[in-house]
Write a structure and sequence with these properties.
There is one protein chain. The protein is of the alpha/beta class. The strands form two sheets. It has a five-stranded parallel β-sheet with strand order 7-6-5-8-9. It has a four-stranded parallel β-sheet with strand order 2-1-3-4, with helices on both faces. Helix 7 links the parallel strand 6 and strand 7. Bound molecules: phosphoric acid mono(formamide)ester and norvaline (NVA).
Length: 336
């Protein structure tokens, strides 16, 4: 596998072998980190992290991974740069590429990160757009493989709004890696028809089965992984909460749903952050307004032994490290 100089914008741009290669590399980098073995493969390089939306995991994962690889890091927050307001993406790309060896971008439309990559002469990594969150999927797949020992044939059920970044990216990732994927939500919340068709074609090659199911009981029968995400994503107006709660409440991940899989081994996953209690500003506000103590997942499931969300969060760092080391080239040099 040689990903030197490549952008990491969406999983559709990568072969199944390349995605698996990144997951394998992340597992090895994780082992080195745990054993305290230095892996400063990108010593002397520098990366810029652009965040037009807020972040905890993705930002910290990029920063720690870059530092572990021996690199310098600059974080550009949602308000602290000229991007968008006084300077175009195309100009920003050329300025940053003249100083940095790689650029991470989190923002709104996928077309923005694609444009950034088109104008930047260095690798650009997608840290989340409205359409895709590819680094999250690498972490999710590593976590599933650690738990079950394999990926091919795992049954993953995604509960909730499947039209946004997480539903889309999980569907692509599962199709690529032979993981069976079910989106469970009202039909209006299924992913875009064209993306489904693209993924069905990929799935026909890898053996993955993709299903779109409105009935939670039918969807989760036999599930190994039940996955959910927030019902209202970053960048969406507060006004959509009411419609989402109405449409998606029957799809909340709760103990009754977890017990419907027919398997003791089923795990719960979530990209985080999650509204599982009232201990957040938005959770409290919306909880009080709509008379609920949780949204997409109950606190009982979130805190249960079936929940592997924090192992999943940790793996963001190891997998993002793999993406940077593979595309910046230090990894290849270290193997030579
Ligand atoms: N899962 C995820 O991307 O988390 P952050 O928004 O905290 O980066
Ligand atoms: N769908 C969520 C994912 C957060 C990691 C969002 O875009 O806000």
């Amino acid at each position: 596998m040689n990903l030197l100089g490549r952008d990491f914008l969406k999983l559709l741009d990568f072969t199944s072998e390349e995605i698996l290669g990144l997951i394998n590399m992340a597992a090895e980098l994780k082992a080195r980190k745990k054993a305290g073995v230095p892996h400063r493969f990108c010593e002397g390089k520098n990366v810029a992290l652009i965040f037009e939306k807020t972040s905890t995991r993705t930002r910290c994962a990029f920063e720690v991974a870059a530092m572990d690889l021996g690199m310098g890091v600059t974080y550009l927050d949602p308000t602290g740069s000229q991007i968008g307001k006084k300077e175009s993406i195309a100009d920003t790309a050329r300025v940053l590429a003249s100083m940095y060896d790689g650029i991470e971008y989190r923002g709104f439309g996928q077309s923005i990160v694609e444009e950034l990559a088109a104008y930047a002469s260095v690798p650009v990594w997608n840290g989340l757009t409205d359409e895709f969150h590819p680094t999250q999927i690498l972490a999710d797949m590593l976590t599933i493989r650690e738990r079950f020992g394999y990926l091919q044939g795992i049954n993953l059920v995604y509960m909730g709004d499947a039209r946004f970044n997480m539903g889309n990216s999980l569907m692509v990732g599962c199709a690529k890696l032979g993981v069976n994927f079910t989106a469970c939500c009202p039909a209006a919340y299924f992913p875009d028809r064209r993306l489904i068709d693209t993924c069905q074609a990929i799935a026909a090659e890898t053996g993955a089965v993709l299903r779109f199911e409105e009935d939670p009981a039918k969807a989760v029968a036999g599930a190994d992984v039940i996955y959910t995400d927030v019902w209202v994503s970053m960048g969406e107006p507060v006004s959509v909460w009411e419609e989402r709660i109405k449409a998606l409440s029957p799809y909340q991940v709760n103990t009754a749903l977890m017990n419907m899989t027919g398997k003791e081994s089923t795990v719960f996953m979530h990209c985080l952050p999650a509204y599982h209690d009232l201990n957040t500003q938005v959770g409290k506000e919306m909880g009080e307004r709509f008379g609920r103590d949780s949204m997409e997942v109950t606190n009982e499931v979130f805190e249960s032994e079936k929940s592997i969300v924090f192992a999943e969060a940790e793996n963001r760092m190891h997998t993002i490290k793999a993406v940077m080391a593979a595309t910046l080239g230090g990894w290849e040099d270290a193997q030579a």
